[in-house]
Design goal:
heterodimer, A: 530 residues, ABC transporter involved in vitamin B12 uptake, BtuC, four-stranded antiparallel β-sheet, elongated, B: alpha/beta, seven-stranded mixed β-sheet, five-stranded parallel β-sheet, 17 strands, 20% strand, Peripla_BP_I (chain B), TAT_signal (chain B), signal (chain B), ABC_urea-bd_UrtA (chain B), Amino acid/amide ABC transporter substrate-binding protein, HAAT family (chain B)
Chain lengths: 530, 428
């Protein structure tokens, strides 16, 4: 507490003695803000902070968000609700001065802003803001903020904020060569406890003039963190594999039905995925234009529509083309390949060749930390979604009459027909179901990939690989196949690289198919001979 | 596919014909000068190349309004090579031999350029190539109006080293000839500047790579060595969107690890929410956001031509603007469209670029252009943070052992790979 008082006294003393100088430096800061040069903007930030300008926080925050306008000698803050304030005084402006342009930023300026906001936010009453400020200081390692941080630590009551502040303090101390050696050793310990990539980076930036004891402690801390991170990295790779596996599962599971159950080599499967993605795009466009409030539900609205669109197109393809080609796999392959090209070019003509922007709803953006694991929300939701789709399909096949009929037709078409099942109708519905599921996959993939006419092409090979590897006609095989390939790919990638990893996997599948031509889970019984 | 293609061609030709007929009915009976446009209108490359076809049609229409060239109207002949490399060669042959075009503006990928090269040599015609490429080439029949590596990659690296104080480099690219050669040049350049090998990480991914989780976390790991790190990206086409999405999701901000890209322009950003990408960089010779009277006029003209207020312009479009202007001047200087005369007339021809300078065709068939570094803004445009003066394009990189003694000189030496050490034409 005494420290705080001392600091306040210091600030007051500086303020009184340097009042005139401060006004001058503020003038200079505003001139520089209008100069449209990055170095001038940087200097202006320094001047505002050093001069403790009463509007500094407002101005710098506006600058960070592109709401600070300058031109013709005026500097204006535009508030979030669009009001104009004079940056010097904070007073509202009646009319807009002419020739205003936003003050431009580059990465250097942005870093300075971050650092400045860090310094300004350390004593903010909002805990979350204090933590963010501490993080900013952790990155900027601005030595001049050390006294403020120490004050903030002594006043801090929240444990998380306190830890963040201590880490920021440690990051500064470790680079500060004239700090007491004991403090710097303690700083190494604080960073070791933090134990993430950033802590590692900070530890590694220890200046070369450190004492042997400090160097030794640093080396041990680095080794400690590296060991821990290596372990986490393996977990992370498994997670990435699971995530890739879920994407493969989504893309392939519709194919597992059309190819696996019906034996149709459907090269237009990828285009069903694409149609699903474009349906999402249209839904979002309508929502953006008409009901902006619903944006977070756009994917939920798109799901049934994508299923219907892709499913209906699938049924149309089955009734219009494939029906006449049963039992002629080569012709089916060529015909569906042709259909896939037609669909691609049709979409290209209708929507243009460029990528379309599909936005992510709030709950799917960003990432969170789980131990040493960075998990992105969109990947997590896709895994959940893939699991749900898989369970739903299983349920349809096992529990519904149409599922029963599908299985009957798969196992023995003639017998099923003899039992009174209309095999033609079942074929159309099965194909529609498979295509509809591909449409669902499209909704999910629109979140991680391009929504372009080529979207489907990149998944078709992978999908066939998964289905063939897993065993034709078996949903569980597709699940195991997708996860195995996903995880194997991601475990290989760090060592072999993305290109070689993929090649290695292809070679493995070729060899595997030699050994087990019917995949992991081969169907037994009459279906095999049929 | 072929039915599709033919239909496209007929459509394109009809369109071009209609444009000319529409505006110049009395001139229709006259003899015309034909200009070939060889850009993919279908297939994977359509995303980038379709706009180039449109910009050529616009330029030709504009030139015809001014009275054409040598008193004759220009006539565009549009073909669709459908992103299919061998088809590029066939279509090029069709343009030169059957349609008798005077010059061809076209190609995007290096593979497509290499595929048409023998055709242009054999039939002796002129190709204007508008895209930034890996260099290491200087052909008599080709004029390179896009950037050579020393007009894009090296200045970008210099900018990062100077302004962002970058010490550690990730060179990430798609696995094909342009990124491989560019990264080879950059690696040699960085090493010559004293960057140790352990501070350079090179990573290649297949075309259309969509799962960037591992690579982005590798980049994060590489960036945590206590030195400022940057990514130099030669990632091509569609793979960029998922790459940037993953960067945004894993929270890599431009203030921590900036990414400078050589293949990401206004068009590519149209498909992404750019807010998480604020501050990542791109190096080009042109940005739509450049404020010059020439550029503003061009953007206005383009938006009017496309009848869309959202139409964006980009670097290869500017390259075609410069290339076309140079070709027109060269034809007028040579008073003929004869390929040999035009090829001889082109070096030394100057034409204004859209960023306020005058570009010049050099004896090595490359041009001078300024290098601009832009940061991505929230609206998908670029904010120019650095601009150099005019840089002369090097056909042969000075950084690579195999090519540093080579120069292309089609004026005096009549040779594309003249070795200054041995004084002989032909190879290292």
């Amino acid at each position: 507490m005494t420290r705080l008082l001392r600091m306040i006294a210091l600030i007051l003393a500086v303020a009184l003695s340097a009042g005139a100088a401060r006004a001058q430096s503020a003038d200079e800061a505003f001139t520089r803000l209008g100069a449209d040069s990055f170095s001038d903007t940087n200097r202006a930030i320094e001047l505002l902070i050093a001069g403790a300008h009463p509007q500094a926080a407002v101005i710098i925050e506006a600058l960070a968000e592109g709401r600070l306008l300058a031109g013709g000698g005026a500097v204006v803050v535009k508030t979030k609700d669009g009001k104009l304030l004079d940056a010097r005084t904070g007073a509202a402006l009646a009319s807009e001065p002419p020739g205003l342009n936003p003050v431009r930023l580059n990465n250097g300026v942005r870093r300075n802003i971050q650092a400045a906001l860090g310094g300004l936010g350390l004593l903010n009453p909002d805990t979350a803001k204090r933590i963010a400020a501490a993080e900013a200081v952790f990155k900027s390692r601005d030595v001049s903020l050390l006294p403020v941080i120490e004050t903030a630590i002594s006043r801090e009551t929240d444990t998380r904020a306190k830890a963040a502040l201590r880490q920021a303090q440690a990051a500064i101390l470790i680079a500060k060569t004239d700090a007491p050696p004991f403090d710097r050793l303690a700083a190494v310990d604080v960073l070791r406890e933090r134990g993430d990539q950033d802590a590692l980076a900070t530890l590694r930036s220890l200046p070369g003039d450190a004492s042997p004891a400090l160097k030794d402690a640093q080396a041990r801390a680095v080794a400690d963190i590296e060991g821990k991170l290596a372990l986490w990295r393996t977990v992370q790779n498994l997670w990435y594999g699971l995530s890739l596996g879920s994407v493969l599962l989504l893309a392939a599971i519709g194919l597992a039905i059309t190819f696996g159950v019906m034996g149709v080599i459907n090269m237009a499967h990828g285009e069903m995925v694409m149609l699903g993605a474009y349906t999402t795009f249209i839904v979002q466009e309508v929502i953006r234009a008409r009901f902006p409030g619903l944006f977070d539900y756009s994917l939920a609205i798109a799901l049934p529509l994508a299923f219907l669109v892709a499913g209906l197109v699938g049924i149309a393809i089955e009734r219009g083309v494939i029906r006449f080609l049963y039992g002629r796999p080569l012709e089916t392959l060529l015909a569906t390949w042709g259909i896939s090209l037609i669909l691609q070019q049709a979409v290209r003509t209708a929507f243009g060749p460029t990528n379309r922007e599909v936005g992510a709803p709030n709950f799917m953006s960003g990432a969170f930390e789980l131990g040493g694991l960075a998990i992105t929300w969109n990947r997590l939701w896709i895994i959940v979604f893939a699991a749900l789709v898989f369970a739903a399909l299983l349920a349809i096949l096992k529990l519904t009459p149409i599922g029963l009929q599908m299985r009957a037709v798969t196992q023995n078409r003639r017998m099923a027909s003899a039992m009174g099942i209309r095999t033609g109708r079942v074929d159309a519905l099965t194909f529609g179901l498979g295509s509809g599921v591909a449409g669902l996959a499209g909704v999910a993939l629109s979140q991680i990939d391009n929504v372009s006419p080529n979207l489907g092409q990149s998944y078709i090979i992978d999908s066939f690989m998964v289905v063939v590897f897993g065993g034709v006609g078996n949903l569980w095989g597709t699940l195991v196949g997708a996860l195995t390939l996903g995880i194997a790919n991601k475990l290989l990638e760090p060592y072999a690289g993305a290109v070689l990893g993929k090649i290695a996997l292809l070679v493995f599948i070729i060899l595997f198919i030699q050994k087990r031509p019917r995949g992991l889970f081969a169907l037994k019984g009459r279906a095999v001979e049929a | 596919m072929s039915v599709n293609t033919t239909r496209r061609v007929v459509l394109g030709a009809a369109l071009a014909g209609a444009t000319i007929l529409g505006s110049f009915l009395p001139a229709a009976a006259q003899e015309t000068i034909k200009v070939g446009i060889l850009h993919s209108l279908s297939g994977t490359m359509a995303i980038s190349e379709t706009t180039l076809k449109d910009v050529m049609l616009m330029l030709i229409e504009e030139q015809n309004k001014k009275g054409g060239v040598l008193g004759k109207k220009l006539e565009a002949v549009v073909v669709d090579p459908a992103s299919n490399w061998p088809l590029f060669a066939e279509k090029a042959r069709e343009l030169i031999a059957k349609d008798k075009v005077s010059a061809v503006f076209g190609c995007w990928t290096s593979v497509s350029r290499k595929s048409v090269l023998p055709v242009f040599k054999e039939l002796n015609s002129v190709l204007f190539y508008p895209v930034q490429y890996e260099g290491e080439e200087s052909e008599r029949n080709v004029f390179y109006t896009g950037a050579a590596p020393n007009q894009q990659a090296i200045p970008a690296v210099d900018y990062l080293a100077k302004e962002e104080k970058v010490q550690r480099w990730v060179l990430a690219g798609t696995d094909y000839v342009y990124p491989r050669t560019t990264n080879k040049i950059l690696e040699a350049y960085l090493k010559s500047k004293g960057v140790p090998a352990e501070d350079i990480m090179i990573n290649y991914t297949p075309f259309g790579h969509s799962d960037w989780q591992t690579i982005v976390s590798d980049i994060k790991k590489f960036g945590s060595a206590g030195k400022k790190t940057a990514v130099v990206s030669t990632i091509n086409g569609d793979a960029n969107v998922p790459f940037y999405k993953e960067l945004g999701n894993q929270g890599i901000k431009a203030t921590d690890i900036p990414v400078v890209a050589f293949s990401v322009g206004e068009e590519e950003l149209a498909g992404i929410d750019t807010k998480p990408l604020l501050g990542h960089l791109a190096a080009w010779n042109y940005f739509q956001s450049v404020k010059t009277p020439e550029n503003e006029a061009f953007i206005k003209q383009w938006k009017a031509y496309k009848k869309s207020d959202k139409a964006v312009t980009n670097d290869p479009m500017e390259a075609h603007v410069i290339g076309f202007a140079m070709w027109v001047k060269a034809v007028e200087k040579a008073k003929s469209t004869d390929p040999d005369k035009v090829i001889d007339a082109l070096p030394g021809i100057e034409a204004p670029n859209l960023t306020g300078g005058i570009s010049k065709m050099l004896p090595n068939h490359h041009i001078t252009k300024p290098v601009l570094i832009g940061e991505i803004k929230a609206d998908g445009q670029f904010d120019v943070v650095s601009k150099t003066g005019l840089v002369a394009g090097d056909a042969w990189s000075k950084e690579l052992d195999g090519s540093k003694d080579l120069v292309g000189d089609w004026v005096e030496k009549k040779c594309g790979n003249f070795n200054v050490k041995t004084g002989k034409c032909g190879g290292a």
